[in-house]
TrEMBL record:
Protein name, per record: TetR/AcrR family transcriptional regulator
Molecular-function GO terms, alphabetical: DNA binding
Top-level taxon in the UniProt lineage: Bacteria
Protein species of origin: Psychrobacillus vulpis
Alphabetical list of InterPro entries matching this protein: Homeodomain-like_sf (IPR009057), HTH-type_Tx_Regulator (IPR050624), HTH_TetR (IPR001647)
Keywords recorded for this protein, A-Z: DNA-binding, Repressor
HTH tetR-type domain sequence ranges: 1-61
DNA-binding region listed in the record: 24-43
PANTHER family xref list: ACREF/ENVCD OPERON REPRESSOR-RELATED, ACREF_ENVCD OPERON REPRESSOR-RELATED
Length: 277
């Protein structure tokens, strides 16, 4: 696990300087001070390494934003905290966010495209739950347009400080985007993106597929984790999926036990949706 993390960290340094395509496995191993054999014990290929990096960043980012949206009690502060946390995360992981944006614009790798679309759809669900909570029936016909406006703000404004090195005032940026979003929510009258249009390019997962995916990830994490409260909590949560016996309060407490563990953020996100917390 330590060597795998080292490879990911050192590879990210090279990817930030040279991009994915221009960086070879040989360069990565030299930068890590390891052999090619050691590299291939951790990753089958450079593509697998890249996808692992994407998973590492996107699962933590999506899970953290999802938790914020679902647990922020002060509705008046929710949109501000959403934008602040989003751009703070981009700023903290600016090297990876930068190369990820560049690769999205030019990548022809099908697995990369599918992976990014999956996380994109996950973020759309988080934003949808937020705008429905904030604006309710007021935006019932325009909420999908509003989602894409918010996603546009996230992408466009992040590019300003990632690629143009503009000074970043997170407080001012979040306040400005809150004002813009509220104006759009109140005044959009001609929707373009309907629920039917959304369904055309989304790939819904049925309940059984979702359940099996969650159980598979849980088994993987249970094997990876040493004896800990997180491992015990995952075992109990798995039993709850297979045969529900616990109260919602206990299930929520078990969820809290795993939420902040760096290797459990994505399964925590999936379980919040599964148990509808």
């Amino acid at each position: 696990m330590i060597k795998k993390q080292l490879i990911m960290e050192k590879a990210l340094e090279l990817f930030a300087k040279q991009g994915f395509e221009a960086t070879s496995v040989q360069q990565i191993t030299e930068h890590c001070g390891i052999s090619k054999g050691a590299f291939y014990l951790s990753f089958k290929s450079k593509d697998e390494l890249i996808l692992e990096l994407i998973n590492h960043f996107m699962t933590q980012f999506t899970s953290d934003i999802d938790y914020l949206v679902k647990n922020e009690e002060n509705t008046e502060e929710l949109l501000y905290k959403f934008y602040y946390s989003t751009f703070y995360s981009f700023h903290q992981h600016s090297d990876f966010a930068k190369i990820l944006m560049k690769e999205q614009m030019r990548s022809l790798n099908e697995e990369f495209i599918i992976k990014m679309r999956y996380y994109d759809q996950s973020m759309e669900k988080v934003i949808l739950s937020m705008v429905e909570r904030l604006y309710g029936e007021e935006i019932s016909h325009t909420k999908y347009d509003l989602i894409y406006c918010i996603k546009g703000f996230m992408k466009t404004y992040s590019e300003l400080f990632l690629f143009y090195n503009l000074p970043l005032d997170l407080n001012l940026l979040a306040q400005s985007l809150v004002e813009k979003t509220n104006l759009l929510a109140r005044h959009i009258t001609i929707p373009f993106i309907s629920q039917e249009l959304i369904q055309l390019f989304q790939q819904p997962m049925n309940e059984e597929e979702s359940r099996e995916q969650i159980l598979e990830i849980m088994d993987q994490k249970i094997m990876e984790l040493g004896d800990s409260i997180e491992k015990e909590s995952l075992i109990l949560l798995k039993q709850q999926i297979l045969e529900p016996t616990l109260s919602p309060a206990i299930v929520k407490g078990l969820q809290e036990n795993i939420r902040n563990h760096p290797h459990c953020k994505w399964i925590s996100y999936l379980l919040r949706s599964y148990f509808e917390f």
